[in-house]
Design brief:
The structure holds 3 protein chains of 3 kinds.
Chain A lengths: L2 H15 L26 E7 L8 E7 L2 E7 L12 H4 L1 H5 L9 E3 L12 E3 L2 H17 L6 E5 L4 H14 L4 E3 L6 H11 L6 E2 L6 E5 L10 H13 L6 E5 L5 H5 L2 E3 L6 H14 L5 H7 E2 L1 H11 L2 H8 L3 H13 L3 E5 L1 H4 L4 H14 L9 E2 L16 H8 L21 H7 L7 E5 L3 H4 L3 H10 L2 E6 L11 E4 L8 E4 L8 E5 L12 H10 L15 H8 L6 H7 L1 E3 L8 H4 L7 E2 L3 H9 L27 E6 L13 H4 L13 E5 H6 L7 E5 L4 E9 L6 E5 L39 E6 L1
Parallel strand pairs in A: 6-7, 6-15, 9-10, 9-13, 10-11, 12-21, 15-16, 16-17, 22-26, 23-25
Antiparallel strand pairs in A: 1-2, 2-3, 4-5, 4-17, 8-14, 18-19, 19-20, 22-27, 23-26, 24-25, 24-27
Chain B lengths: L2 E4 L6 H27 L14 H24 L7 H25 L21 H25 L2 H27 L12 H27 L7 H29 L4 H9 L3 H21 L7 H28 L8 E2 L13 H24 L3 E4 L13
Antiparallel strand pairs in B: 1-3
Chain C lengths: L3 E6 L8 H10 L6 H5 L8 E9 L2 E9 L8 H5 L5 E3 L5 E3 L9 H5 L6 E2 L34 E2 L5 H9 L11 H4 L6 E5 L6 H8 L15 E4 L2
Parallel strand pairs in C: 1-9
Antiparallel strand pairs in C: 1-8, 2-3, 4-5, 6-7
Classes of the chains: A alpha/beta, B mainly alpha, C alpha+beta.
Chain lengths: ~750, ~400, ~230
C-alpha cells in the first residue's frame, strides 16, 4: 500500500466514522463509488441516452468504464445537430458525480425558512417520506380541496412531465406550473398570432443563406443550442454560398463576434426595426408577392400601417441605427434567398414581446421563407402510444375547474399557457385561494425568475413544501421535505426534440449507471406515490407499471425495444415542405398579418380589441424606473455555460464561464467603455448596480461591445445554496429586476428594468 | 613578510551564536522545502505565468558571485599578484560554497527534486541542446575544479595550482555565460532574448563576486579582530569601477536594442511598468550609479566606509538585477495574437512572496553561511603573519 | 511516416469552448478553483482566448482556440534537460512524466502558453481513469492514469486514441481524431496527416490562406488557423 492509498483510506475511514454530515462526506470525485455494484459489468460500454442540461434534450452516448461514466459525446443518429452536442453536454459527468448531491430523503427540522438559514436537515427513509407526502395529499383529497396542491415542474424529461401532468389531472389540481413562463413564451405567442402554432419556431438551417438575428444569441442561449452550433459551421463553410449572419443586439455577444455584422440597437426597440425593414421591403417591392397573395390575409392593413408609421428615418431615431443601415440590411434580407429572421430572449422577453415576435415572424413571410427550404419550418411531433383514458372523479373535476394560481387565460394574460412569475403574488395574497401543499420537481424558479425576494417570501409562506431534485437548489432550501431524484444519466425516460430540424425525433433515456445512493427517478417516485393514492392509482394502472415499462409502452409504436435501446434515437419520416394547405391554424387557414386568432381569443374573453391591436407593431416598452434616476437599461444575459438544471456547481463550466472576457468563477458587470471612463471607473473596480427595487455589487468591465445606455450582467451566478463550486460566487442579476409581463402570454419581462451604477 | 594560513579558533561567543542562528535558519529552510515538496508548489509564489521564482533568482545570483570570486582568486595564483595572496584562499573557498548553494537552489526549485540526478546524466539521458543540460556539465565540473584547485592550494603545489587557476578562469567564465545563455536563447520572452545576455551575466559575475569578496574579507577581519593590510580592499575597490562600467554598457546596449521593434513594448513595460522600481532602484541605482559615484569620489573612495558601502550596494543591486530579469521577464504576457487579449490570458503575471518561499530563500543563504563558517574553522583559510598572535604552521610561501 | 497536424477554421468556430471541456473529460485533466485561477495555477490543455480590437460600435473580438501547437521546431523540446519532452517520429510532441524533473524551463520557452505545471496533488479532481494507456506499471512514454505534482503537462493530440486507432487499422483523421476535434459542434477542427495531400487537413490548407500563431518565432507549428 503506498502513501497515497493509505492517506485515502484514512480519510475515508475518518469521514465515514465522523459522518453526521448529511451531504456526501466525500469531497472527491474519486471517493464516489457506485453504491450498488455492477458485478457483471463488462469492461467498457457505450450507452445511448439523452442529455438534460437544457431543454434541447440532445441525444448523447455515454462511455461507461467499470460502472463509471467517463465520457459523453453525441449520438450520430440524431439529425437535429448532426450528432453533435454543445459544451454543456460534457458537463453531465460533473452533474452525475456532483459531490453536493443528496443521497437520501431529508426532512427539515428548523422551522424557519430563509436564505441564510440552516434547515438542519435530518435523514429519513423513503417509506417515511412517501408516507408523509401521500398522507398530506390524501388529506387534501379528503377535504375535497385537491386544487390546493401546487406543482412546480422545472427541467424534467418529457416522460416525467407526462407523468406529472397525468398525476395533476388525476389528483384534481389545475396548478401545474412549468418554467416556460420564464423563457420563450412570447416567441410562441407572437408566432401564434400569425400561424396559430403556440410553439417555438424551427428553422431549416441547412440551406439558409441569410440570417437576421434580433437579440437571438444563437451561439449562447438559443434552443436547441447544439443545432445552432453545428449548423453555424455548416452555413459558413460547408456549402457553396457562405451564409451571411447579422446580429442585432445591444451587446456584442459571442454570436455577434462570430457573425458578419453586429448592429447595436437601443434595447426594447427591435419591433420598430423589424417593422422598418418591412417598410423597405414593401416600398421597394422586394417581398414574395406570390406567397403573400395566395397564402396570407390581413396584408393590406399591415402594409398600410408599415408604410404609414415605420419609415427608416423615423425608426432610426427610435433605435439609434442609421437609416442607410436599415435599408441595406432590408435589401440584403429580401434579396438573399432563402433568408430567416429570428428573435431571441433578449428581444422578446419584454412587456410587448408578443408583438415584437409577431413583427419579426412576419418578415419571414415577406421573404417567402415560410415552410420552405432554408426557412421557417414546422416541427413534426412523434406519435406516442396513447395512454389509457384518465380516470377522474368529481372531486378531481371540481378541483380542476378552479381558477389557476397563475391567472393564465384570464383577461390579465389572455393567451398565456403558464405565467410562472405570477405565483409569488398569488401565494402572498392567497388569491384566488391559499395553497396548502407544494411539490417542486427540479424547479429552481427563485433563482431564474425576476424579483427573487418575493419568491423567497412566498416560498417561506407555503405551509408544507416538498422538493424533488438531485441537489439542494435555492428552491429546495425552502422545502420541508427533500426527495433526492436521480440525475438524467440514471433514469428511464423519453424526450422528443424541441423545435429543431423539423423531422420528429424521439430520444431514449436509459440509466448509464445505477442511481447513486438512495436516489430514485422522478417517474419512479410518481409511480410509487400513485400506488398510495386511491384517486390517482387507476390512472397509473395501465402505464407499464414503472419507469422502464412506461417508456417501453409509450415508445412501442416507434421501433422494437431492443433496437431502441441500442440506437437511442427514433427519427420520423422525412420533412415535407410547403404544406400551406394544412399548416396554418388560423380562422382563415392562411398566414395572418392581422391576427384572427387574437381576435377570437379576445372575443371569447369578452373584450373586443381594436383592429390595430391585432397587427404586429412597435410599442414603446414600459420601463421600470425613470430615465433621469436610473439612466441605464439592465440586460441580464445568459452565457452558454449556464446549466439550466438549477445548479452551477460544475468547475469545468465555471472556470471558462465568460469566454469574451477570458475569465471564470465570477460575474462581470459590463458597461460601455466611454461611459465608464466618464464616470471614473476602472476595470475590475467594485460597483453597485441599483434598480428601483434592489441593488447588487460586482466588478465592472469596461467594454467596447456594449451600447452606451446598457448595463449587461451575466446570469447563472449568485447562488447561495449548497455546492462549493457555486456558492457565494458572483451575483444574480435577477434579484434586482422588477416584475413585469408580456400581457398576452404572461412571459416574465427580464429586460425592462432600469438601473443606476456607482462606485462601491 | 612571510604569509601563513591558519584556521579560525571558533570558540568565541559571536561565532557560536552565529553558527547556531545559521543552523536554525537552515533548518527552517529545509522544513519549508519539505512542505513544498509534500504539498506541491502551490505553497510558493510561482505559477503557470511566472514559473520561476526566488530559488532561481537566488541560484543565478549565487552562480555569478561564485564565478566572480573564483576568477578573482586567479589574480594571485595565475597572474602572480602577491598583494591579493592573503585573501585568495578565502576567495576559492567562497566560490565553492557559493556554487554548492546554487546547486541546492536549483534542487529546491525543481518540481521533483528526487529526480535531480537526471541533470547529471550528460549525453546519456540528457538533451544536450538544452542550456540547462549543458549547464549541468558546467556546474558539476566547476565544483570539481574548485575543490581540486583548493586542494592544490592547500598542498602548495604551485605549478598545478597555476594550471588549475587557468582552467578555473576559463571554466568560471563559461559557467556564468552558460547561465546567461539559459535566458538569452529563449525567443518567446522578449525581455530575456538577447545574444548579449551571456556577456552581461559574466560582467555581473565579476562585479558582484568582487563586491562580495570585499565584504566577506572585511567582515572576517573585522570580526576576528585580526590585523591586516587594508590596502587589499582599496586595491580591489579600484577594480570595481571599470567592471561596473563594462556591465553598465552591456545592459545599456541590451536595453537600447530592445527599445527598437519588435521588443519595444515589453521593454517599455519593464522600464516604466509595475516592476520598474526594481530595475531603476535596485539594478541601476544600487548596482551601477551609486557605487560608481562612491568609488570615484575623491573623498569617499579613500574611506573604508565609502568603499564598503559601495560594495554592499553592489551586492544588493546585482540581486535586484537578477530579480528584474527573471520575474518581469516571465510576467509579461505572451502575445499569442495581435490585439488586446482578454482576461487571464492577457494579464500581467504577479509574484507574491509566500512564506515558504521566503524561508527557503533565507535557508539557502543560511546554509552557505554555515558552511563558510565551518570552513573557516576547520580549514586553514585565514592569513596570519609573524606579527599575529596565532600560532601557525610555517610555510615557505603562502 | 505521417506528420500529424490540425487545422482550426476560425470562420466555423463558434467560440463555445466545447473543445476545452471535451479535452478535460477525455484526458482526465484536473479543473481549477477560483483561487487557482486568480493565482494562475490551474491546468489547461486547450484554452480559448478572446482578442479584442476596436472601439464602440466598431469592435471585433476573435475567439481563438489554442491547443499545444506541436511545433516542428519546438522550443520546449530544445530546452528540456531531461529529454522528458521530445518529438515523436510522427510529429507529436510527447511529455514523459516519468522523466520530467519539474524545472519549468519548457513553460518559460513555450511561446503559446500551452503548458501547465501541476502545483499540487490533483487526486480530488481526477477521475482515476485506468483506461488511459499505458498505466504506470509500464515502462516507456507516459501519459497518465493519475498524475503527480511537480511535473508539467500539456495537450498530447490524444495520441492514445491515435496509437490505438493505428493498431486497429482505423483511418486517422476520419475515424479516429483527438477529442477536441471529435466534439467540436461546428466541425471547425480537423486533424490528419500533413504529408498526405489527400487528407482533409491538406485540402483545407489548400482551400484558402492559412496562418500560424507567432510565425515570426519560426516554431513551425502544426496547428494551422483558417481566418474568417
Amino acid at each position: 500500500m503506498n502513501r497515497r492509498t493509505f492517506l485515502k483510506l484514512s480519510a475515508l475511514t475518518g469521514t465515514v466514522v465522523g459522518g453526521k454530515r448529511i451531504i456526501g462526506p466525500f469531497e472527491t470525485f474519486a471517493g464516489l463509488s457506485p453504491q450498488q455494484k455492477t458485478e457483471n459489468a463488462p469492461e467498457e460500454k457505450w450507452i445511448s441516452t439523452s442529455c438534460l442540461n437544457c431543454s434541447a434534450r440532445c441525444a448523447i452516448r455515454v462511455r461507461v468504464l467499470k460502472g463509471k461514466a467517463v465520457k459523453i459525446t453525441g449520438n450520430p443518429l440524431s439529425s437535429v445537430a448532426d450528432g453533435k452536442i454543445c459544451p454543456r453536454g460534457h458537463l453531465g459527468l460533473q452533474v452525475l458525480y456532483d459531490p453536493g448531491r443528496i443521497r437520501f430523503p431529508l426532512k427539515r427540522t428548523n422551522k424557519e425558512k430563509g436564505r441564510a438559514i440552516d434547515p438542519k436537515w435530518t435523514r429519513l427513509s423513503w417509506e417515511e417520506a412517501i408516507e408523509e407526502v401521500a398522507h398530506r395529499l390524501k388529506s387534501l383529497r379528503d377535504k375535497a380541496q385537491p386544487h390546493k396542491l401546487l406543482l412546480f415542474s422545472g427541467l424534467n424529461s418529457m416522460s416525467s412531465e407526462d407523468l406529472i401532468f397525468r398525476f395533476a389531472n388525476a389528483f384534481g389540481t389545475p396548478n401545474l406550473i412549468f418554467g416556460n413562463g420564464l423563457d420563450g413564451e412570447t416567441e410562441k405567442s407572437g408566432r401564434w398570432m400569425a400561424d396559430g402554432h403556440y410553439r417555438s419556431t424551427a428553422y431549416d438551417l441547412d440551406h439558409t443563406n441569410y440570417v437576421l438575428a434580433f437579440g437571438a444569441q444563437m451561439l449562447e442561449s438559443s434552443i436547441p443550442l447544439s443545432r445552432f452550433l453545428r449548423k453555424w459551421g455548416k452555413l459558413r463553410r460547408e456549402k457553396s454560398n457562405r451564409t451571411k449572419i447579422v446580429v442585432i443586439s445591444p451587446r456584442y455577444s459571442v454570436t455577434a463576434a462570430k457573425a458578419d455584422e453586429w448592429i447595436p440597437i437601443r434595447p426594447g426597440t427591435d419591433a420598430a426595426l423589424a417593422m422598418a425593414i418591412a417598410h423597405v421591403i414593401l416600398s421597394e417591392k422586394l417581398h414574395d408577392s406570390d406567397f403573400i397573395s395566395h397564402w396570407t390575409t390581413g396584408f393590406d392593413l399591415y402594409k398600410k400601417l408599415i408604410l404609414h408609421q415605420y419609415s427608416p428615418s423615423v425608426v432610426s431615431t427610435v433605435t439609434g441605427i442609421p437609416p442607410e443601415t436599415i435599408q441595406r440590411i432590408a435589401r440584403e434580407f429580401a434579396q438573399t434567398q432563402p433568408a430567416i429572421a429570428l428573435g431571441g430572449k433578449e428581444s422578446l422577453n419584454w412587456p410587448e414581446g408578443s408583438y415584437t415576435s409577431y413583427a419579426i415572424f412576419c418578415l419571414n413571410a415577406l421573404a417567402g421563407s415560410i415552410d420552405g427550404p432554408g426557412g421557417v419550418i414546422y416541427q413534426e411531433h412523434p406519435k406516442y402510444q396513447e395512454m389509457s383514458p384518465l380516470v377522474e372523479d368529481d372531486i378531481a373535476r371540481e378541483g380542476k375547474a378552479q381558477p389557476c394560481l397563475d391567472l393564465r387565460g384570464t383577461t390579465k394574460f389572455p393567451a398565456a399557457q403558464v405565467v410562472t412569475n405570477q405565483i409569488p403574488e398569488s401565494l402572498l395574497a392567497d388569491t384566488p385561494y391559499a395553497i396548502e401543499l407544494a411539490i417542486g420537481f427540479n424547479s429552481n424558479f427563485n433563482m431564474l425568475a425576476p424579483g427573487s425576494e418575493r419568491w423567497d417570501q412566498a416560498l417561506g409562506k407555503i405551509p408544507y413544501s416538498v422538493h424533488v431534485s438531485p441537489f439542494i437548489s435555492e428552491m429546495a432550501l425552502y422545502a420541508d421535505l427533500l426527495l433526492p431524484s436521480a440525475t438524467y444519466l440514471e433514469e428511464w425516460g423519453y424526450d422528443h426534440s424541441p423545435a429543431g430540424g423539423g423531422v420528429a425525433e424521439v430520444r431514449l433515456k436509459q440509466p448509464v449507471v445505477k442511481p447513486l445512493g438512495e436516489t430514485r427517478a422522478i417517474s419512479d417516485i410518481l409511480f410509487h406515490l400513485s400506488k398510495n393514492l386511491k384517486a390517482v392509482a387507476p390512472s397509473f394502472a395501465n402505464l407499464g407499471d414503472g419507469p422502464e415499462g412506461f417508456v417501453k409502452f409509450r415508445t412501442s409504436p416507434m421501433m422494437p425495444w431492443k433496437e431502441f435501446l441500442r440506437k437511442g434515437v427514433w427519427t420520423g419520416p422525412n420533412y415535407q415542405y410547403k404544406k400551406y394547405q394544412r399548416i396554418f391554424n388560423t380562422p382563415s387557414k392562411k398566414f395572418e398579418f392581422t391576427s384572427g386568432n387574437l381576435r377570437s381569443l379576445m372575443a371569447k374573453k369578452g373584450k373586443r380589441d381594436e383592429e390595430l391591436n391585432l397587427l404586429p407593431q412597435y410599442r414603446e416598452a414600459n420601463f421600470l424606473g425613470k430615465k433621469d434616476q436610473h439612466p441605464f437599461v439592465l440586460i441580464p444575459y445568459q452565457p452558454l455555460m449556464v446549466i439550466e438544471n438549477g445548479s452551477q456547481n460544475y468547475p469545468w463550466a465555471q472556470e471558462i464561464f465568460l469566454p469574451m472576457h477570458g475569465r471564470g468563477w465570477e460575474t462581470l458587470i459590463e458597461i460601455n467603455r466611454e461611459v465608464g471612463e466618464r464616470m471614473g471607473f476602472r476595470n475590475g473596480q467594485m460597483i453597485w448596480v441599483e434598480s428601483p427595487f434592489e441593488k447588487i455589487k460586482g466588478r465592472v468591465k469596461l467594454s467596447d461591445g456594449i451600447h452606451p445606455e446598457v448595463v449587461a450582467i451575466p446570469s447563472g451566478q449568485g447562488h447561495y445554496a449548497y455546492g462549493k463550486w457555486q456558492q457565494g460566487i458572483g451575483v444574480n442579476p435577477h434579484e434586482i429586476i422588477g416584475v413585469d409581463y408580456d400581457r398576452l402570454s404572461g412571459q416574465a419581462a427580464f429586460f425592462n428594468t432600469r438601473v443606476k451604477i456607482y462606485k462601491a | 613578510m612571510s604569509l601563513t594560513f591558519s584556521t579560525l579558533e571558533g570558540r568565541s561567543r559571536i561565532f557560536l551564536i552565529l553558527a547556531a542562528a545559521l543552523a536554525a535558519l537552515s533548518l527552517i529552510g529545509f522544513i519549508s522545502f519539505m512542505v513544498s515538496y509534500i504539498k506541491g508548489h502551490q505553497v510558493l509564489g510561482s505559477s503557470n505565468i511566472v514559473p520561476w521564482g526566488m530559488p532561481i533568482v537566488i541560484t543565478i545570483y549565487l552562480i555569478g558571485l561564485s564565478a566572480g570570486s573564483l576568477i578573482l582568486s586567479s589574480l594571485t595564483y595565475v597572474f602572480g599578484k602577491e598583494e591579493y595572496r592573503p585573501i585568495s584562499r578565502i576567495a576559492v573557498f567562497l566560490a565553492i560554497v557559493l556554487i554548492f548553494g546554487a546547486m541546492v537552489g536549483i534542487a529546491l526549485d525543481l518540481g521533483r527534486p528526487e529526480k535531480s540526478w537526471r541533470l547529471f546524466m550528460f549525453f546519456v539521458l540528457n538533451n544536450m541542446r538544452s542550456m540547462f543540460a549543458i549547464n549541468g556539465i558546467l556546474y558539476g565540473g566547476y565544483f570539481l575544479i574548485g575543490v581540486i584547485y583548493l586542494g592544490f592550494i592547500f598542498g602548495e603545489k604551485w605549478k598545478w595550482t597555476r594550471v588549475m587557476g587557468l582552467i578555473a578562469i576559463f571554466w568560471a567564465a563559461l559557467v556564468h555565460m552558460g547561465t546567461g545563455a539559459i535566458f538569452g536563447f529563449i525567443a518567446a520572452r522578449p525581455i530575456f532574448y538577447s545574444p548579449i545576455k551571456p556577456f552581461e551575466f559574466l560582467a555581473a559575475a565579476m562585479v558582484s563576486g568582487l563586491a562580495l569578496l570585499m565584504i566577506v574579507v572585511w567582515a572576517i577581519f573585522r570580526f576576528t579582530k585580526r590585523k591586516w593590510d587594508q590596502e587589499i580592499l582599496y586595491a580591489l575597490s579600484k577594480l570595481l569601477p571599470p567592471l561596473i562600467v563594462v556591465l553598465f554598457t552591456m545592459v545599456l546596449v541590451d536595453k537600447l536594442t530592445h527599445l527598437y521593434s519588435p521588443h519595444r513594448e515589453p521593454t517599455l513595460w519593464l522600464l516604466a511598468g509595475p516592476f520598474s522600481w526594481i530595475f531603476w532602484g535596485l539594478q541601476v541605482g544600487c548596482a551601477y550609479v551609486l557605487p560608481f559615484i562612491l568609488l570615484v569620489h575623491p573623498q569617499y573612495k579613500k574611506t573604508i566606509q565609502g568603499v564598503m558601502t559601495a560594495a554592499c550596494l553592489v551586492v544588493i543591486g546585482i540581486f535586484g538585477e537578477r530579480f528584474a530579469l527573471v520575474i518581469p521577464g516571465t510576467a509579461y504576457p505572451l502575445t499569442f495574437y495581435p490585439g488586446s487579449i482578454e482576461g487571464i490570458w492577457g494579464e500581467v503575471g504577479s509574484f507574491p512572496l509566500r512564506p515558504m518561499e521566503l524561508f527557503m530563500s533565507i535557508g539557502i543563504f543560511a546554509l552557505m553561511g554555515l558552511f563558510f563558517l565551518l570552513g573557516l574553522k576547520y580549514l586553514a583559510l585565514l592569513p596570519a603573519n609573524e606579527r599575529s598572535e596565532q600560532t601557525s604552521t610555517p610555510a615557505e610561501k603562502g | 511516416m505521417p506528420r500529424w497536424g490540425m487545422v482550426i477554421d476560425l470562420d466555423k468556430c463558434v467560440g463555445c469552448q466545447a473543445c476545452t471541456i471535451a479535452c478535460k473529460a477525455e484526458n482526465n485533466v484536473p479543473y481549477g478553483s477560483p483561487e487557482e485561477q486568480k493565482s494562475r495555477k490551474d491546468v489547461y490543455w486547450n484554452k480559448v482566448i478572446a482578442v479584442t480590437s476596436g472601439k464602440y460600435p466598431k469592435v471585433n473580438t476573435e475567439l481563438i482556440p489554442m491547443p499545444c501547437m506541436h511545433c516542428d521546431q519546438a522550443p520546449c523540446v530544445t530546452v528540456c534537460p531531461a529529454k522528458a519532452t521530445y518529438r515523436r517520429e510522427d510529429g507529436i510532441i510527447v511529455q514523459d512524466f516519468r522523466r520530467c524533473i519539474g524545472c519549468k524551463y519548457c513553460i518559460v520557452a513555450c511561446p503559446y502558453g500551452a503548458r501547465s505545471f501541476n502545483s499540487k496533488e490533483q487526486e480530488e479532481k481526477e477521475y482515476h481513469r485506468k483506461d488511459l494507456p499505458p498505466d504506470r506499471s509500464v515502462w516507456g512514454p507516459w501519459p497518465f492514469p493519475t498524475r503527480t505534482h511537480g511535473v508539467v503537462e500539456k495537450c498530447t493530440f490524444c495520441f492514445h486514441r491515435i496509437d490505438q486507432g493505428i493498431k486497429e487499422g482505423k483511418r486517422i483523421g476520419k475515424e479516429v481524431v483527438p477529442a477536441c476535434v471529435e466534439d467540436c459542434p461546428a466541425n471547425a477542427r480537423a486533424f490528419g496527416d500533413l504529408e498526405d495531400t489527400g487528407s482533409e487537413v491538406s485540402q483545407l490548407l489548400a482551400s484558402r490562406g492559412w496562418i500560424r500563431l507567432r510565425e515570426e518565432l519560426g516554431t513551425k507549428c502544426k496547428v494551422y488557423y483558417l481566418p474568417r
